[in-house]
Design brief:
Blueprint: E1 4-6, E2 23-27, H1 32-39, E3 44-48, E4 51-55, E5 60-63, H2 72-80, E6 84-87, H3 91-100, H4 113-124, E7 128-135, E8 138-148, E9 151-159, H5 164-178, E10 183-187, H6 191-194, E11 199-201, H7 203-213
Parallel strand pairs: 1-2, 9-10
Antiparallel strand pairs: 2-4, 3-4, 5-10, 5-11, 6-7, 7-8, 8-9
Helix pairs in contact: 3-4
Length: 217
């Protein structure tokens, strides 16, 4: 496979040209127009060594809201009331925490300053959203992603207290389901999200959902 190099034209190659890991293209920019085009084609960006890489893996890791798994321990946490849930109260803080928090399975972060600014711009225009968990007025967990029509594309989450990101995720999935969202893109496998009900589906099936559910945006 030869890697497709993006230029100024707002176009992506067919996703079936991605390599076995899902890498499709390199380069381009993080303009709102390019990012929205990417999501509407089932493609998402990651940074690596200062280069923008564009991905569309097969299979795709997703969560159907009706398949959300809430453990008995999390049910107790939800009932206890120690954590407060909100949406879009502080998007900048959420993406800032996702950018800075250390992760045991990776060196540094793929959320560069350019990436951070690009998603803040998407938030200003109503496409990027955050869900937050608060404890005694302190932001202790959360996540952010892109909402297009009845589909949500999850990007990153963080937790500064035990189960805080799970709390925000569960509450947000329940809210999204009530608003008509039918599928949540989790991009690539994590045991954390698998425990909450996420599973793999073929890319071709995923892209059918993208075509059907993002038409309203």
């Amino acid at each position: 496979m030869s890697l497709y190099i993006l230029d100024r034209d707002l176009v992506f190659p067919p996703v079936n040209l991605a390599d076995e890991d899902g890498l499709l293209a390199i380069g381009g920019d993080l303009s709102m127009e390019r990012l929205l085009l990417a999501y509407r084609n089932g493609i998402f960006p990651w940074y690596e060594n200062k280069y923008i890489l564009w991905w569309c893996p097969d299979p795709r890791f997703v969560l159907f809201p009706q398949e959300l798994k809430v453990s008995n321990s999390m049910k107790q946490i939800l009932k206890k009331g120690d954590l407060e849930f909100s949406v879009n109260r502080n998007f900048r803080a959420v993406i800032g925490e996702c950018k800075s928090i250390s992760r045991h399975d990776q060196e540094g972060t793929w959320i560069t300053e350019d990436m951070q600014n690009a998603y803040i711009n998407l938030h200003r225009h109503g496409y990027a959203h955050s869900a937050e968990a608060w404890q005694n007025g302190e932001l202790v967990g959360g996540l952010y992603g892109i909402r297009l029509g009845n589909m949500f594309f999850g990007e990153s989450m963080f937790s500064k207290r035990s189960n805080a990101s799970k709390f925000a995720f569960i509450k947000y999935v329940q809210q999204l389901q009530s608003e008509g969202v039918r599928i949540i893109d989790c991009q690539v496998y994590t045991a954390h999200l698998e425990s909450l009900g996420a599973r793999m589906i073929p890319r071709v099936e995923f892209l059918e959902y993208v075509d059907q559910l993002t038409m309203d945006n």
